[in-house]
TrEMBL record:
Cited InterPro entries: Rhodanese-like_dom, Rhodanese-like_dom_sf, Thiosulphate_STrfase_CS
PROSITE patterns: RHODANESE_2, RHODANESE_3
Species of provenance: Drosophila rhopaloa (Fruit fly)
Keyword match Transferase: yes
Keywords attached to this entry: Transferase
Protein name: Sulfurtransferase
Residue stretches making up the Rhodanese domain: 12-110
């Protein structure tokens, strides 16, 4: 599981990937996590199976290596857990969910 502090520090670690698997309409309602790449859960398997060049063109970042740290977030953690499981099934060895997801992020950000 990824923690709030780890997610907050992702912008300082370009070797890590933060994927927000919420739908675009949800992002418009709430905002986005810094340095995150939005890939809705329904599109995740297709995205992670894209050829390297297609992934880079579509998402503006190199496709993660099979051993890269992948952190998945959603609104409350359920879809993030499913996304991490899916990535693991596809062979990614360092996939994890941010259990608190947007709900925790928003609560902790409003205290700062």
């Amino acid at each position: 599981m990824a923690t709030y502090d780890e997610v907050k520090d992702v912008p300082n670690h370009p070797e890590k990937y933060l994927f927000d698997v919420r739908n675009e309409t949800e992002l418009k309602e709430t905002g986005v996590l810094p340095a995150s790449i939005n890939i809705p859960l329904a599109e995740l398997e297709k995205a992670l199976n894209l050829p390297d060049n297609d992934f880079a063109k579509t998402y503006g970042r190199e496709k993660p290596a099979i051993d890269a740290v992948l952190i998945f977030s959603c609104k409350a953690g359920g879809r993030a857990a499913r996304a991490a499981n899916l990535a693991s099934t596809l062979g990614f060895t360092n996939a994890k969910a941010y259990a608190g997801s947007w709900t925790e992020w928003e609560a902790k950000q409003s205290k700062n």
